[in-house]
Amino acid sequence: MKSQIPSTLTEADANQAGIITLPRKMDLLKKLRQSFVIDKLENTDWRQGTSAPLIVELDTTEACDLACPNCISEDIVQNGNRFSDERLMRLGEEFVKYGIKGVILIGGGEPLAHPAVGRFMEYLGQHDIHIGITTNGTMIHRHLSIIGEYASWTRVSMDAATDETFQVLRPSKGRHSKFDKIIDNMRRLSAIKKGKMGYSYLLQTPMDGPGVISNIHEIYDAAMLAREIGCDYFEVKPSYQYRAGVDHALVVHERKLMEEARQQINRLGELETPNFKIMKAINLDISLAGRQSEQPKNYHWCPAAELRTLICPSGAYVCPYWRGKPNMKIGEPSLLSFDELWHGQLRKTIMQRLDPSRDCTFHCLRHESNEQVIQLIDSIKKGNKPESMEEFDRFI
Q1: Statement: 11-381 belongs to CATH 3.20.20.70
Q2: Nearest to 376, CA basis, from 26, 8, 40, 27
Q3: What ranges do the domains of the chain cover?
Q4: How far is 67 from 148, CA to CA, in rounded Å?
Q5: Alpha-carbon gap, residue 339 to 334, rounded angstroms
Q6: Neighbour order of strands in the sheet with 130-135
Q7: Span 197-221, pLDDT tens digits
Q8: Overall pTM > 0.85
C-alpha cells in the first residue's frame, strides 16, 4: 500500500517523532527571487522556451576510480566515456556565449578525472561562470589551486568517518581505501579555498543492497572530522533506490538503525560554529521515520528543465533524474553544438510531451521550485513583476 503522507514532514510531525529540525541544504525558493532569475522569467517567450538554461550539470567523464557497491551509475561508468579535451573546452566557450550562469561538475563518473578539467574550470572561472563540484575527493590535489580559486563550492562524498567503513562503502578499483588521501586533500583545500567545502554523508545500511554495511554509527564522528579538517558544512542525506517502477524512491531501513541515526543526528547541533554548519537533505526526516515519500505533481510541464539541463559524454538529457534514459535524451553533445542541442527539434518534442504529473513519479528536488516558477510566470503574465533581490547564489 502506498503511503499518503506528504513529501516533507511538518515541524510538529518532526517534533513528535523526536527528530531535530536542522537547517536544510539550500533554500531553492529564495534563490528563485534573485534578479537574474526574475529577468529570465520575464524575458522568455514560454511558448518557445528559454534561449538557454541558467545552470548546466556536466559529466566531464563517465569513468570513476572507485568501485562503490550498488553504485547508482554502475551501468554508465562501465563504459568509461569522456569528452575529448577539445570538445570539453569548446563546451566552455559555448556556455560563455549563451550566458550560462553556473556549471556543476558532477557524475556519472568522477568529474575531476578528466585530463582537461583543470583548464576547463580555469576558463569558466575567468569568464564569470560559477563552478560547483561534486566529487569523491581522490583527485582534488591535481587541481588544488584552481579549485581553491574558482570553485564556489566543493562537496565531497564521504559516507564514513573511518578508513574501515570507507574501505567497504567506497573502495577503489583495486579494492583498497583512499580515505586518508581524501582527508589530506580536503585539509589542503580548506587552507586555500575561496568557496565552501562540504562533507557529504549518505545514510547507508544493508537495505541499500549487497555489499553495503551500516554507517549509522559513524555519523557524529564524521561530522566532528569534517569540522576538524576545515569543512564549512556537514550534510546528512537519505539514500534512494529503484522501487516498483520508481527510479528515485527512498530506501526504508531497519527501524532500530534509524532510531540510532536519529539519536546521532540530534546531537549534531552541538558541533555548529559560526564557520561550520550542519545541513540535512530534503526527505531526511521521512527516511528516519521509516517511511516512503509521495510527491504528487499537479502541473503538466517542467520549468526546471528550461532553467537547468544535464550534459554527459553519452548524451544530453532534460535533467539529471533522466540520466541514461533514451526517451529523455535531447541529443549527442559530442556531435552537436550546444545551440543545436538546446534549440533542436528533438528537445522541443521531448519538452512538449514531458508531463511531470505522469512521467516524474520519483521524488524531485525541484518540485517546489517548479510550483513557484509557475506562480511567478503567471504573475508576470498578469503584469505584476515579482519583487526581486540581488544575486547571492547562482545555483538555483
Answers
A1: yes
A2: 40
A3: 11-381
A4: 27
A5: 13
A6: 277-280, 233-237, 196-202, 151-157, 130-135, 102-106, 55-59, 308-312, 315-317, 329-331
A7: 999 999 999 999 999 999 999 999 9
A8: yes
